[in-house]
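re: ur question from yesterday

yeah so i grabbed the chain u mentioned. its 184 aa long if i counted rite. heres the sequnce exactly as i have it in my notes:
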Amino acid sequence: MKQELIALLAQKSFKYSPEPVFKLVSGRMSHFYVNCKPTVMHPRGMYLVGHLMFAAIRDLQPAGVGGLTFGADPIAMATAFASELEGQPMRAFSIRKAKKDHGIARWIEGDLAAGDRVVVIDDVATTGGSTIKAVERAREEGLEVVRAVILVDRQEGGLENIRQHVADVRALITRDELMAAIGA
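ran it thru and got these structure tokens back, copy pasting raw so excuse formatting
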């Protein structure tokens, strides 16, 4: 499954240029561009991501899996669906970018309660900033973050930065694996 997902990401979500032509959120220019959404919203990609992410976290038996909207949302939903198919259900959750200011003011949408053990996920890590923000907001809501898993690690220090907030951090796929898939 992993090799098939790498091939799909390489086809639909990964771009490389010998010159740094891709502008990142930080404003820095890069040789690489990763947009996982075309893959994780594709039916086969959703299947592969859900099952691989579930395999990466099933040992923890977390109550939930999720992260900062919008990057983590399709991955969390695919993982929750796969978890039900595998007989070990876990709930998906989504962390807002801005706190809800009406009703019950919360960072998180989903069926979780303070004290629940969760895994925070993200689609791509460059510096790890989005994942760290998700971890902090999950903890603000009383959740126990037991692992962070990134779909694609750009191998630019993000996982190391996240480890300063969560000891157990993993990536399913690395930039090097995507580079190998495109023959670069």
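noticed a couple things. The mean pLDDT is 94. also The two ends are 22 Å apart (CA to CA).
anyway ttyl
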